[in-house]
Amino acid sequence: MPIIAKIVSTTGAVRHVTLSDDPSDQEIIDALGGKVGDDYDMLGQANGYEVLRLKNGSTDKIVIGAPPQNSAPIKQRASCTISDTNAANLAKSFP
Fold first, then answer.
1. Residue percentage of the chain with pLDDT more than 90
2. Is residue 7 part of a domain?
3. Cα 22 to chain center, whole Å?
4. In this structure, is residue 54 part of a structural domain?
5. Could you tell me the residue range of the domain that residue 59 belongs to?
6. Whole-angstrom Cα distance, residue 74 to residue 63?
7. Which among 17, 22, 25, 56 is placed 20 to 30 Å from 77, CA to CA?
8. Looking at residue 67, what is its pLDDT?
9. How many domains is the chain partitioned into structurally?
10. Are 20 and 2 in contact (CB under 8 A)?
11. pLDDT of residue 46
12. Per the domain annotation, does 94 fall within a domain?
């Protein structure tokens, strides 16, 4: 089942992207505009969400449901259901 993640630009503009509920690293990198061979940093977690950014100098950040625990019976992330404003504020809270 697909999930929604939110890409936040430095201006605070938010766009929605659809990912699989267990996205691969490459799916996340692609959503952020990266290419094969790029990697991302986890900037922080709060309230069940994770904020990620590419290591290649990109300034866009993605707000996505935090990954499940390794011991979780179902391996899937949740959709980002917070408002666009809250997603932008969360992304801004991590440098």
1. 83
2. yes
3. 12
4. yes
5. 3-86
6. 21
7. 56
8. 85
9. 1
10. yes
11. 95
12. no
